[in-house]
Amino acid sequence: MTSDNNKLKLLSAGAVKGGVAQLAAEFERATGQGVAMDFLPAPELRDRIAAGEAADVVILPQSMMDESAASGKVVAGSRALLGRSRMGVAVHANAPTMDLGNAESFKRLALGASAVVHNNASSGVYAAKLLEKLGIAQTLGAKIIVVKSGAAVMEYVAEHPTDAIGIAQISEIMVLVAKGCAVRLAGPLPDEIQNSTTYFAAVTAQGGARQTADALVRHLTTPAAKTAFAATGID
Questions:
Q1: What is the DSSP string of the chain?
Q2: Mean of the per-residue pLDDT values of the chain
Q3: What whole-number distance in Å separates Cα of residue 196 and Cα of residue 98?
Q4: How many CB atoms within 10 Å of residue 22?
Q5: Is the pTM of this model over 0.70?
Q6: pLDDT single digits (tens) 49-94
Q7: Given this model, what pLDDT does residue 55 score?
Q8: What residues are paired with 168 via a beta bridge?
Q9: Average pLDDT of 124-132?
Q10: Superfamily of domain 85-193 in the CATH hierarchy
């Protein structure tokens, strides 16, 4: 299928929005083929795909792409690696420099914050488990704020100057920084508690414009595309 006005429809995880939006715009200029994009938190994306929402291209975390491949929702052989997103800490743009050299310094930062914010998507699930693993979830209690999306994490931190922190994918932090949100990346999570999510693109099995959709997937995975993704926090 193609959507209204003969545009390709692309459903994507929100963490790769910065690079995908830029590369899709380049694809449109080069080919004249429009692309309608919808960026969603992973749980909502899973629900919409499971409900049979039609699209031409999907961009999913590895686990969700594995599910889609197993159920025949994507074309065998069209799956292509986009890159990996790591987790980081977002703070208000005016917050002082913070030490994130190891897990202990992260614990001190979290315990001293007025709020520790994460979403309820895949990165947020990891953040919740991390706080439990570090033994600080119970101490933090109501200071743990759960929001719907990565963007909402940054918006909360921006609205609570200097003392709230957000745990999110670095790529999502960078997207909001580029949009002028009053946050900055304090740094990646320390290596010993880091988590990365790998993203893939694929052509859907129900799409009616497979050749054009495949061309878009290839455009998203060129060496130049990898450079563009790296600039948005996807390596």
A1: ---GGG-EEEEEEGGGHHHHHHHHHHHHHHH---EEEEEE-HHHHHHHHHTT---SEEEEEHHHHHHHHHTT-B-TT--EEEEEEEEEEEEETTSPP---SSHHHHHHHHHHSSEEEEESSHHHHHHHHHHHHTT-HHHHGGGEEEESSHHHHHHHHHHSTTTEEEEEEHHHHHHHHHTT-SEEEEEEPPGGG--EEEEEEEEBSS-S-HHHHHHHHHHTTSHHHHHHHHTTTB-
A2: 92
A3: 22
A4: 15
A5: yes
A6: 888 888 999 999 999 999 989 989 999 899 999 999 999 999 999 9
A7: 93
A8: 88
A9: 96
A10: Periplasmic binding protein-like II (3.40.190.10)
**Which residue is it, tokens 């993203």?**
199
The amino acid occupying position 213 is A
Q: Residue 136 is which amino acid?
A: I
Bridge partners, 13 (sequence order): 40
Closest to 168 in 3D by CA, of 178, 179, 156: 156
The yes/no answer on whether domain 4-83+198-230 falls in CATH 3.40.190.10 is yes
